[in-house]
Amino acid sequence: MRATDLFDNYLFGTCTPQEKTDFEARLKTDLEFATAFEKHRVLIEGLNNHEQRQNIKQLFSTIHQQEFGKDAKIVSINEGFVKKHGKTVAVAASVAVMAVIGTLTVLSTGGYLLKKQSNDITDLKRDVAELKYSQDAIIGGIHTAKNNIVKAAYAPANIEGTGFALNNKGYFITSLHMVKNADSVFVTNSILDRVSAKLVATDPTLDIAIYKLDNTEALDKISYPFSFNNNVSEIGDKVFTIGYPRKDMVYGEGSLSALSGYNNDTTMFQVSIPVNPGNSGGPLLDEQGNVIGIIRGKLSSAEGTGFAIKSNLIKQAIASIEDESLKTELTLNAKKSSIKGLKRSEQIKKMQAFVFNIMVYKK
Q: Measured between alpha carbons, how far is 303 from 279 in angstroms, rounded to an integer?
């Protein structure tokens, strides 16, 4: 059998278990054979990706117009990202095509932009109940009365979650599945009472949305703590996250348990952290305070197993934006983290001003 036939049988899953075992053993011992296979794999992948990219571009263009309007001035990171980084997102792009095709009917009636990868993955947006807000209002009224503070009462949001600042200019990132179909978005935290924000960019493939605060005065003079450097993450590394699964910020810690996500999705990490509804969009950080990902969801069938989109793909997506002025505004800090070496409680104190409770209002 020709080598190319062997390669195709392996790539398309038509070889027997024994043939697969023999093939993989030969890859490890025969350098010339392994090199030829890699070239063949890249060729086949390139042919497949070209058609996938065209399909994705057309499908997302249709969805973008349907969901945001024909003339909406929102940057779609995905289009430039797929053009420039087709190989990097080949697996994710393939999944996205199938998901989009499967949800076009749902979208026409106002459903989600992204279909879940599987029923086993739970999105971590926090649906807000009226009763809970009534309880919060009573508690808030007690504190207000004690301190003689007059505080405005706001209507409850439909969904809440987490987001975090990308820099000191008011830009922040969160999960797209959480803000989908939002009529308006506000943020609050330890220093922000209630600030509105506008959507500036999305990437449906990575499930991310980027917003800009309408008022950045409270953050202008505070040192930005995060770093997006290129440190390599390894299985077993200690990691932590902070977010808003409740009205107060919550800290969680654990370790990096896999370098891929559900069904070996290479766009994500798997982490052993108990994440809950409301953690969507929160930062995943290593011990030095470097951002290595953004919380995406958790495994429904197992507590303490979460998934996070890798930060290097977020960096590549931002770098692919065709609007040069916006891309410049979104420059990420690649220098050493300013909180490196601090004990965890001190790290969190410096981070909390730049991690936001996202309040999503829908019609």
A: 14
Total count of residues recorded for the chain = 363
The two beta strands, 291-299 and 121-123, are antiparallel
pTM: 0.64
Angle in degrees, 0-180, between the axes of helices 31-68 and 77-84, rounded to the nearest 10: 160
Task: Give the phi and the psi of residue 82 in degrees, each rounded to 5.
Answer: -65, -35
User: Which residues, in sequence order, are CB contacts of 30 under 8 Å at separation 6+?
Assistant: none
Cα(38)–Cα(129) distance, integer angstroms: 53
Span 25-68, pLDDT tens digits: 888 888 778 888 888 887 777 766 666 666 666 666 666 565 55
pLDDT digits (tens, 9 = 90+) for 263-318: 888 999 999 998 888 899 999 999 988 999 999 988 776 677 899 999 999 999 99
